[in-house]
Amino acid sequence: MPLYLAAADPADPGLPWKPFTIPGSNEPVLLLRLEVDPVDGSSTSLVRFPPGWRRPGPGHYACGEEFVVLGGELTVSGVAYGRGDRGWIAPGATRRASASPEGALALAWFSGVPAWTDGEGAAPADPSGGRVPLLSVHVPEAGLPLRTGVGEREARLYERAPASFGTAVRVLWPEGAGGPRWAAFGPGEPLPAGRRGRIFVRSGCSI
Q1: Whole-number pLDDT of residue 193
Q2: Burial level of 141, CB count in 10 A (0-12/13-18/19+)?
Q3: Which of 29, 57, 138, 186 has CA 20 to 30 A from 120's CA?
């Protein structure tokens, strides 16, 4: 998977954000592509939603999407995701109206090429939209598995970062003294000891 940025601080003014119009929406967002798999089209991106952004439904993506809201609020199909909330929408699941009245910042993973189709898709298996409050949910010592559905890879939430992982991982610190951070680590590569707080960890492969 081509890695465009090994680490990203959303507050860094030098990052290469680009305008991008999400299909069916009323205005562009700012997109920062972190990595893309050239084989299956899966991707990781930071997305800034401007105040007043909206997309009426219904519609659906053929691929699945997992995301974490890092700031502001994003509503999808009647479910409100605030700062630190994780969401999961299964492949082909119908999405009703989406909106961000005050704007939002999110980290999003797509399991394939995000091709949008207007109209009804499958009935969502989880009416909660996979919402998990990462900053307040109870986390066991071994970490909290967040399964993204049959055939999809697992993500895990940790109360504190292990020294390293045996495989390549992508790590999100949803909050911290300097704000949220995203970073990529190779097998056995040490995580920064000075970065405290909960971490959301995904495999370094496509989701």
Answers
A1: 82
A2: exposed
A3: 29
